Amino acid sequence: MGWHLLVWIPLALLGLFWSLLCWAAKGLIHWEGWRKGVEITQEVPLFEFPEWLKDLLGIGWIEEIQAALVSFWPQLHEWLLSWPDLGSWFTVLLWFVWGVGVLLLLGAGGLLSLLIALARRAQPQRTAGVSA
Asked: Which stretches are transmembrane (predicted)?
């Protein structure tokens, strides 16, 4: 039983992470700010990290990504507006991708559980208390 828990607990955590990632992607696509103009970038609150944390983690690259996104925003906004109904087909696609991911995780868990069961069956059985 313990070996199976070592398989299924990490897979359950991966499934949770996968679900949260898909949920965040759906929320990002359905965000009302995409349909607004460039001025929406001024309304997005900035999360500032303390300087000691920036130095400790070396996260100066986050500011570089933010600057690149702000400079790329007009092209991204124009591309998103060119799609007539981005949200509806993306939601269907996202549910499909989520389902495939969950099925892959379940299949991996089942396969690993089967390998554990086969390995336990192949071990010789110990008989306690049998004397010759």
From this structure: 89-118
Query: What are the φ and ψ backbone dihedral angles of 44, each rounded to 5 degrees?
Result: -70, 125
**In the numeric block, which tokens belong to residue 127?**
């008989």
Cα gap 62→59, rounded to integer Å:
6
Q: What is the crossing angle of helices 2-29 and 86-122, to 10°?
A: 170
Question: What sections of the chain are H helices per DSSP?
Answer: 2-29, 40-43, 51-57, 60-82, 86-122
* 9 touches 109 (CB < 8 A): no
Contact (Cβ atoms closer than 8 angstroms) between residue 95 and residue 19: no
Q: Read out DSSP for 51-88?
A: HHHHHHHT-HHHHHHHHHHHHHHHHHHHHHHHSTTHHH
Query: Could you report the per-residue pLDDT of 64-118, keeping only the tens digit for each?
Result: 766 777 677 777 667 766 766 666 777 888 889 999 999 999 999 999 999 998 9
Confidence band, pLDDT 50/70/90 cuts, at residue 35: low
